[in-house]
Design goal:
about 210 residues, alpha+beta, 8-stranded mixed beta sheet, 8 strands, globular
């Protein structure tokens, strides 16, 4: 499954590129994710997601490859459920380009996922991804406007807060259900009108026979 997203950050491309080098600061901006270890361009972490009342935790690893001249980076990620048979792997490429608002980040994700989250189709996953990427961009903007020193993963990383995929997908599901729901409602109304007309004709017929 291929997903494409774009967002902007309020900083010049060179400044944004420097920040993207620091995974210790950038990773916590991603909803539901916690960075456990970081060793050069190799890292491990956890992601927690929720679908309805069911929570799923993934533990995985990844590597990052950067193209300094093009201001682009590639992340190769893989993980599996800590309790369950679900798996996830992704190749994420991000390209930073100049934008009137600062820097535009173009992200392409080639995602392969099994388990409960796989029940969502590409359309829903794209819109859910838009919401998650939007939250990430907001947190990244807050980070860039702050004056905190460069941080590294804590010795005891915190437990990630679950991203509610069900809640994120609900507006999409409702929007997709609006047309069939409207059609069903129209069908009910037509049936009721036809039934009322039919009953009216029977009543008029009985009345005429009674008068005659």
């Amino acid at each position: 499954m291929q997903l494409d997203h774009t967002f902007t950050v309020p900083a010049a491309p060179d400044d944004a590129w420097k920040l993207f080098h620091d995974l210790g600061r950038v990773a916590p901006c991603m909803p539901g994710a916690v960075l456990d270890t970081l060793d050069g361009d190799t890292f491990t972490g956890r992601v927690k997601v929720k679908v309805g009342a069911v929570q799923m935790s993934y533990r995985g690893e990844g590597t990052v490859t950067r193209d300094e001249a093009a201001h682009s980076m590639r992340l190769d990620l893989s993980g599996s459920e800590t309790r369950g048979a679900g798996t996830a792997s992704a190749t994420v490429t991000a390209e930073l380009v100049a934008d009137p608002a600062g820097t535009r980040v173009r992200v392409r994700t080639d995602l392969d996922i099994t388990g409960r989250p796989a029940q969502f189709g590409r359309g829903i996953m794209t819109e859910v991804g838009d919401r998650i990427v939007g939250q990430f961009a907001d947190r990244l903007a807050e980070l860039m406007s702050a004056t905190e020193p460069v941080s590294t993963p804590a010795s005891t990383p915190a437990e990630p807060e679950a991203v509610d995929l069900g809640a994120a997908a609900l507006p999409v599901l409702l929007k997709k259900a609006a047309v069939p729901a409207a059609a069903a409602l129209a069908a009910v109304i037509l049936v009721k009108v036809a039934r009322d007309r039919f009953r009216g004709r029977i009543f008029r017929g009985v009345t005429l026979r009674a008068r005659s």
